[in-house]
Each structure stands twice: as structure tokens, then as C-alpha cells.
Specification:
432 residues; alpha+beta; SH3 type barrels; 3 domains; three-stranded antiparallel β-sheet
Length: 432
């Protein structure tokens, strides 16, 4: 059916409906407008379904990341939205004239501008996601830069829209915006600071998504979920969410645990305070008592450990490099070092491993375990650390060393009972 035949058929329908002036062509402009609207939307729908079907067939035959991203973004649908306002703009002169025609044509052009802006932003996002996933920058917090590009496109769209509606050149508006630069900087201060922070974070690789960060003096202690233009979202380990401005990450000291995760080992640095009164020279009697425990005797024999008494024996220069010990504390440190060297969950090569004494304090002398685990998994790390420290405290009395602990009510009761003639074994038997 030709366009003329279709128009004549519509005229007859309108005449049957009581619109007798349809025969002289009075309503032809409106008919063209309705037909343009219906046909443009029908063409958009058909093309959308056809391109969607083609993309699905391509994806079934070949898995391509770009094609799949193109299909998921619905960019073709957005581009097809150019058809309805474009067709309406062409038909409007057949229906309206004068100021009404001018206003409606400008509205159609504005719609076309925003369809174009939306399509451009979608294409930019599509290309960004594809390239970002393939490049070595995919862990960098670059989302803020993408949001800036979107914001620039939207700002340009607003300027073009206003210039179309008031029939002025966009350059005139852009020139006039210079007078409001200070106001705009005040309004968009956070966005500008966020942009600068995002560039620095990305350039120096300071923070990535999924990094565990802590900020001293704050409650921030969790994993970075998202870094955008205006906010940094951190999920704490108690599952609470904290929102920070991006420039916080470059304006205050932060602790990033990424290096620990990438190294494959996490540090254990724990101390136990030893009662100074229990530290003594390794006399023959002491060594005989300690050697009653077979595994300690085996350790002394395996390492060839010798004892010396600084008060009685001359100390040659080579004595410290000959596994010689002078105190039970030194013997205990040697034993713990060997224990850590044999532990399957402790790093032995390329990592610092030592057992050392720290500066004495009012409560005693701290002995510190300093080593690295073979895992960075939190639960496994805590289990290994707890296992080692519990072993240290439990085995310490076998070397006649005792950890310091503030006296509790139980100790005061036991002391009073001993003063009354009770034996320590009897006190324990009473369950006190």
C-alpha cells in the first residue's frame, strides 16, 4: 500500500467518525505526525529485536568479551532512540507553524542531544570496562576519573540544551561561566578534591579495591569496597560500612596491609613477661633438674649446648658462638628458636626469626617471639599465633622460669592458708 492510498484510507475512517473536514486535507498534518510516531517506534522496536537476536547468535557461537559487554550495555537500544525524535522533527512543519513549531522543534533537538549524551556516556563506560579489565590497572581506583568524564559530558549537554532553548551560541554561555568560577569551585569542592585524590591514589598505587586498610586513631579497619569520585567505601570486619572522602586517604597516614598479603607471610610479635626472680645461672643442679625432661635433654644433646657460670668460669671470646648458655633464660631462648625453626607454619628462609629479651620493666623482663607465619589468612594466623604463645607459657616452668602475673584473690587466699600451716598440695585439693 502506497503512502497516498494509506492517507486516503485514514481520511475515510475519520469521516466515518464524524470529522467531515478530513476530505479536504485539514487533518493531513496530524495524520503524518501520528504515522511518524507509530512508524518510528515500530522501526526502533524491530531493529532492537533484530540486533539483539544477532548478538545472541554471535555469543552462542563465540564467547567474546566485547560482544557480551555490548549486549549487556543495551547501547544499540540507546542509539535507536534517535529515530523517534528525528522523525517527529521532520514531520512537525506539516502540522505546526510559527512559535509553536519553533518550540517543538527545539524540544526535539534537546531530546536528540540528551539521547546522544546518554549514548556517549554508555559507550565510554563500555570501552572503559573492557579496557580496564584487560589492563594491568584493573585493581587501581580509577572509577573517579570515569565519573569526571561523565560529568563533563553532562555539563556540556546542559550548556548545549540551554543554548538551544534560548537560541544563543554555546560559546557565549561558556564565556559567561567564567564569572561563576569561584562559586562553582565552592559548590564542587568535594568533587574537585576527589578527582585530585583519585589521580594520586591511582598514580602512586596507594589503595586498591579489596585492600585491607587501617587509619590510626579512627574506627577504620577493614577492606576497601569501592573508590568513587566523592566517597571511599570501607567494610569493617564487623560488617559495618564506613564512608570516607577520597582525599582522606592522601591527607592522613593510612596502613595498607596489601604488602603483607603479597609477601605470603604475616608477622608474629608477641611478648611474655618473665619474673626476674626466676632467672638464674645454669648450675649443674639446675641443668640436672631441667634435663629430667627427655625432650629438653635431647635438645641439649642435639645442639651440643654447654653451660658456663660467669661468676666462676672465665668467658672466652668464642663462648657465645659455641652454643654456650649461662642462664636458664638463655637456654629457653635457644630452645624456642629451635622450636620455631622446626614449626611447619613458620617461615624459615628470607624472613626474620628470633627470640629476644626486651628492656626490663617494672613487672619483669619481657621475652619476645618475632617471626612470620606461612599464611596470611586471618583465622589461620590467629590459630598459629595462639598455639605458639600457649606453648611458650606452658613450657616455661620446665626451665624454672615463671611468667609474671598480678596477684588475684586466689593467690591471697592461698598465701593465708599456707601461713596457717596448709601445704600447697592440700590447697589445690580443696579447690580454692
Amino acid at each position: 500500500m502506497s503512502v497516498g492510498a494509506l492517507l486516503e484510507h485514514i481520511r475515510h475512517i475519520l469521516m466515518r467518525m464524524g470529522l467531515h473536514h478530513a476530505a479536504d486535507g485539514r487533518y493531513d498534518g496530524w495524520i503524518y505526525l501520528v504515522l511518524a510516531v507509530l512508524l518510528s517506534f515500530a522501526a526502533m522496536y524491530i531493529l532492537d529485536k533484530a540486533t539483539g537476536y544477532i548478538l545472541q547468535r554471535i555469543l552462542q557461537q563465540r564467547k567474546a568479551a566485547f560482544i557480551e559487554a555490548l549486549y549487556q550495555s543495551h547501547i544499540i537500544t540507546l542509539i535507536l532512540w534517535f529515530i523517534p525524535p528525528g522523525c517527529i522533527h521532520l514531520v512537525l512543519p506539516y502540522v505546526f507553524d510559527g512559535i509553536v513549531l519553533t518550540i517543538l522543534q527545539r524540544v526535539c533537538i534537546v531530546v536528540l542531544v540528551w539521547v546522544m549524551i546518554n549514548a556517549i556516556n554508555t559507550i565510554i563506560t563500555l570501552l572503559w570496562n573492557v579496557l580496564y579489565a584487560r589492563s594491568r590497572m584493573h585493581n587501581r581506583p580509577m572509577k573517579g576519573i570515569l565519573q569526571i568524564v561523565h560529568g563533563v559530558c553532562i555539563a556540556l549537554g546542559c550548556i548545549v540544551t540551554v543554548s538551544i532553548l534560548i537560541d544563543r551560541s554555546p560559546t557565549v554561555l561558556i564565556t559567561g561561566l567564567g564569572a561563576f568560577a569561584a562559586v562553582l569551585m565552592l559548590i564542587f569542592k568535594d568533587s574537585i578534591l576527589g578527582l585530585v585524590a583519585g589521580v594520586q591514589l591511582s598514580q602512586y598505587d596507594m589503595v586498591r579495591n579489596d585492600d585491607w586498610i587501617t587509619i590510626p586513631g579512627t574506627i577504620v579497619d577493614g577492606v576497601v569496597v569501592d573508590v568513587s569520585l566523592n566517597t571511599v567505601k570501607v567494610r569493617n570486619y564487623d560488617n559495618t560500612l564506613i564512608m570516607l572522602p577520597p582525599y582522606t586517604l592522601i591527607s592522613v597516614p593510612i596502613q595498607n596491609w596489601r604488602g603483607m598479603k603479597e609477601s605470603g607471610g604475616r608477622r608474629i610479635m608477641q611478648s611474655v613477661i618473665v619474673d626476674i626472680n626466676s632467672i638464674q645461672f645454669c648450675s649443674e643442679e639446675l641443668m640436672q633438674r631441667i634435663s629430667q625432661h627427655q625432650f629438653i635433654a635431647d635438645f641439649i644433646a642435639k645442639k651440643g649446648i654447654k653451660t658456663y657460670h660467669p661468676a666462676n668460669d672465665a668467658i672466652p671470646k668464642e663462648v657465645l658462638s659455641n652454643n654456650s648458655v649461662g642462664t636458664n633464660m638463655m637456654l629457653f631462648r635457644y630452645y624456642l628458636t629451635d622450636y620455631l625453626m622446626q614449626h611447619p607454619d613458620i617461615q624459615h628462609e628470607g624472613y626474620t626469626l628470633m627470640v629476644r629479651t626486651l628492656q626490663p620493666v617494672a613487672d619483669g623482663m619481657p621475652i619476645q617471639i618475632y617471626c612470620f607465619t606461612t599464611t596470611t589468612h586471618w583465622e589461620s594466623y590467629e590459630f598459629i599465633q595462639s598455639q605458639i604463645m600457649e606453648y611458650v607459657v606452658a613450657i616455661m616452668p620446665l626451665f624454672e622460669l615463671y611468667p609474671f602475673q598480678n596477684a588475684s584473690g586466689r593467690e591471697y587466699i592461698a598465701q593465708s592458708l599456707i601461713a596457717q600451716g596448709y601445704k600447697p598440695g592440700d590447697i589445690g585439693a580443696t579447690g580454692i
